[in-house]
Amino acid sequence: MPVSVVAHLAAAHYSEHLPFYRLEQPLARTGVTLARSTQVALRTQLDALVAPLVAHLKTAVLASGYVHLDATPVDVCDPARPGRAREATLWAYRARSADPAVEGLVWFEYQASKSPAHPRAVLADYRGVLQTDGAAGLDTLGAPNEVTHLACWAHARRRFIQALRLGESRAGPYRAPYLAQLDRLFRLDARARRIAQAHPAAAARVATWRARFEARERAHPSPTPSLPAPPPTGSRCPRRARSGRPSATSSRSALRWTGASRRPGRGSTTTPSSTPSGRSS
Questions:
Q1: Can you give the residue ranges of every domain in the chain?
Q2: 39 φ, ψ to 5°?
Q3: Which of 123, 143, 158, 194 is the most buried (most CB within 10 A)?
Q4: Strand 85-95 vs strand 66-77: parallel, antiparallel, or unpaired?
Q5: CB 142 within 8 A of CB 209
Q6: For residues 248 and 255, what is the distance between their CA atoms, to the nearest angstrom?
């Protein structure tokens, strides 16, 4: 069997999510007879051939010392319920490294559930930095005192944006400073990435700055920015309208704090003027 045929079947099945019978039918219309049993046999042979490559990829990713971990839900057929589907999980492990040969490598692991027990088994002997989106159970992965857990600023920022849009009582002067700090952080990160891409010689300097900053933060953590005190429990926010929606004064305050622009339409909706870039989850 030509390698191109096997590669086509693998790409169509795993990238396009085509079941074997849907691959069998179009091939038959072109005069190629390839039964589903043959496709399964070819896939089994392919699995055995690429197994060493996949194992090496996993080793390289975990040896990078800085791993992004994320779970993607995937709908698959449920053998226990013919004609029905269930949700499985594709765990993605992405390497971050100053080595261009390692940077961006991704190892995928398929599991039937989203239980953190699966990545916990993979990361039992891992040593280094682990960045996740803060989902339940992911902040305790790895051996104690051997894994540095990082969260995702993009996920944290979403909560403040939602609070501002929904007009929560503490969303104005109490939460907007956080958005200003996060937007500034994203702009600095995006600027560093642009410099590193436009000037390859500066990439090493940016990496040095990053290492120095991380070392300084570990030795002397940045103090929490001073924020206005929240209103007492049960009291009405002075910038909140009686209708339960943010007043015009509250909207203008949010615009000043976040540098946002108002969109035309019913009600007052605020959106950030600068779109964070260079974020990673």
A1: 3-52, 64-151, 154-222+239-271
A2: -60, -40
A3: 123
A4: antiparallel
A5: no
A6: 10
Mean pLDDT of all residues in 252-280: 39
CA angle 229, 230, 231 (to 5 degrees): 120
Beta carbons of 129 and 67 less than 8 angstroms apart: yes
Q: Rounded CA gap, 259 and 49, in Å?
A: 55
244-257: per-residue pLDDT in tens? 444 433 333 333 33
Q: What are phi and psi of 85, to 5 degrees?
A: -120, 155
CA nearest neighbour of 281 among 139, 112, 155: 155
Per-residue pLDDT reduced to its tens digit, 154-174: 888 887 777 777 766 555 555
**pLDDT single digits (tens) 222-235:** 555 454 454 454 44
For residues 86-91, average pLDDT: 90
> What are residue 27's DSSP bridge partners?
none
